[in-house]
Specification:
Layout: H1 2-48
């Protein structure tokens, strides 16, 4: 019976050390790997969206015009309501 209790205690101690080792070495490794994969996904999406500037050929001209903004009439903000103070 004493051997069983000692073996259970030893197992818990070993599991505790294994957990500490995982937190110290395994978790940072996993997090680094996850961050690298997310960076790769980000840069792939960035490249597909045309985020990187391409070398322009000599003499090539692009003219970008700003989008026209549509203004709403200033009178469309709503109806003016006059409030009255109530006497108690």
């Amino acid at each position: 019976m004493l051997e069983f209790i000692l073996s259970v205690i030893l197992i818990f101690i070993l599991l505790g050390y294994a957990f500490r080792l995982f937190l110290r070495y395994g978790l940072p490794w996993l997090m680094g790997r996850y961050v690298k994969k997310q960076q790769e996904k980000f840069y792939q999406g960035f490249d597909q969206a045309g985020g990187r500037t391409q070398q322009k050929k000599e003499g090539e001209v692009k003219i970008k015009q700003p989008r026209k903004k549509t203004k709403k009439d200033e009178g469309e903000f709503g109806e003016y309501v006059e409030f009255e103070d109530l006497d108690k």
